[in-house]
Write a structure and sequence with these properties.
alpha/beta; Dna Ligase, domain 1; 3 domains; single chain
Length: about 400
Amino acid sequence: MDFDVVLIGTDINAYYMARNFYEAYNIKPYVIGRVPMKFTSLSKILKLTIEENLLNEEIFVNTLIELAKKINKKKIILIGCTDDYVSLIIKNKKILKDYYLFNYVDNELLEKLVNKEKFYSSFKDFDLDLPKTYICNLNTSLKKLDETINDFMYPLIIKPSNVVEYHAHSFEGMSKVYKLNNFQEVEKCLTDIKNSGYSDSITIQEFIPGDDSLLFDSVFYCSSKGECQLQSFGQIGLQEHTKTGIGNLTVVINGYNEFNNTKIIQQKLKTFLEKIEFKGACEFDLKYDVRDNKFKIFEINPRQARSSYYLTKCGHNLATYFVDDLIFNKKKNFTFTQKQVLLSFVPKYVARKYINNKEYKKQVFRLWKKETYTDPLVCKGDLSLKRRVWLFLRKINYIIKYNKNNW
């Protein structure tokens, strides 16, 4: 191939994107990250480099420039696989564009999308259905806050508005999202977050009733010219139930929606991206609210999601969209993929025991066949003994984690 690929990150997201390029072009992408993770460190379909200080902006830029010189090809696609790395790429576009090809929005739009306070204020007049939300400052008096959120029903949800800054201040008991049952729990949660050093705002939201099967996932690819080229829409059956994993789906069926009202929300999301002239891959997190029969949008992740490999199983390998766009400048008609495909990270035991929605569960096991089921981490060309043992132990660990944790 007359081009190469650099992926930044070492997690599931990085692995499945490496798998996409390996399967589509027989390329072993360069993968670089801060911490060795078994998703990528046990893989033979990529070339891994660890740089512990990669979040340092100067080191980040210099490392990527040196890597580009080492690869020594005119065309190198650069893809970030976490929010941190996407942000660093965008902030350093002017320098990196001399060495890499990439497809991202500008920093101003990125801030509006990833910062929850800015997202809700910037797009409140767009035709989007959002959960009831209050943004507070950590210096707000607890008495005033209690009075302000008095009309919120418990449990309620608390999450940091600035995810990147939040993850830079880890602390004991840290969670991606907090589901709290009374104001005493709210007070403790906010105190812990403030004491960690986090200084940005906090998002307080109503808890939309219902289990994991009311969650939905929609992934897009929009070209470097701002044209929507690909969209998926799937119903989730399970998400992670650990503090640090909550919000990450573990079971999803693309092309399935038990409420049979996909067209309206599908068009709303597409129209929104077209209006803001979004560029690149992104994922919407939604939950169906049975109280008013609307899909409430929690957030948009301005990157491909860790679970997006189901697109490949649907016949739409995301790697080909990057290549056709950035290398070949190929125009593509918009595709809304409705093929029913099951993606699951968990073993059948977990799906059978913890998916509460009986009709959804029927669909899961109907699709759990070789041609309609996929696990992003199981690649035929990448099953060394060490990796197979690790994958087996990972499935066992999922059983243990679900038995211990209840969201």
